[in-house]
Design goal:
Elements: H1 2-19, H2 23-66, E1 96-98, E2 119-121, E3 143-145, E4 166-168, E5 188-190, E6 211-213, E7 234-236, E8 257-259, H3 268-276, E9 281-283
Parallel strand pairs: 1-2, 2-3, 3-4, 4-5, 5-6, 6-7, 7-8, 8-9
Helix pairs in contact: 1-2
Amino acid sequence: MQEIYWGVCWLIFTGVMIMLPHPLMTGILWILCWILGTCLIMVLTDVQNPQEEKEEKEETEEEKEEEEYVPDLPYNWDNSRTKAPKNTPGQSKPHALNLGHCKKMCDLASISGCPHLRKLDLRKTAVTSKSLEGLKGCTSLHTLIINACRGVTDVVGLGQCPSLSILSMRGTHANTLWGLEKCPKLRKVDCSGSKHLKNIDALENALELKVLDLTACTRLKSVACLLMCRSLTDVNLTHCHVVVDAHLLVRCPEIRTLGVASCHLLTWGTVNSLMIGQVKTLIHNHRPAQ
């Protein structure tokens, strides 16, 4: 951007210099062009800085919330492995482990000896519900990603991870969330695309739960258990076609954002009651009856 304005100033200076043969006038014009270019650059910089500061602030907040995953592994492994690498004596103990897309990975028994492990990415692996029992001993596990792990039909094994705070299980085949009732520190759970999910009663006592994404959980019928989640602020029920009691969530004292688009069993009266409540952002596609 600076180069463009300097170029414009130089063209103006050159054109006028041809028309003004007197050297004094030429010098004065050059100084005026330099001042004009400098002022324009300063104005542009002042306009762009607030936007850049806002973007940096949003990125910082997102990093704090999601806690970025470490892409470099402390082990030498490849996609053909079926077992998680062992932590040999004398080797540094990992705090983050990314085994995502290792399509043959199914045995997590060796990870049970990693009490310092905080982040584990198992997306698109062959991990099953039985495999999750191998996380026993991961008492510090804070973040777990099991997106698109089709072999996961329940999460009972996660009851052995009392420090679990962020769980992403998009597109799994889990029917219920039993096991998570033993994870009192849960703050964010993403079950979007889990079309087999029918029951979330295990979250009834998740007192620290703030964000819950149930997008496209098409077999889920009730979310009444969430009334006990006093810290809940964001819930997404978009495309939960058979949910009948989403309006009850207005009773959650901290609820601010609620997505109910394509919840076919909701009436306009129900949506209207949600709008009257303390929900600040309501995402829906309902229209009042004519």
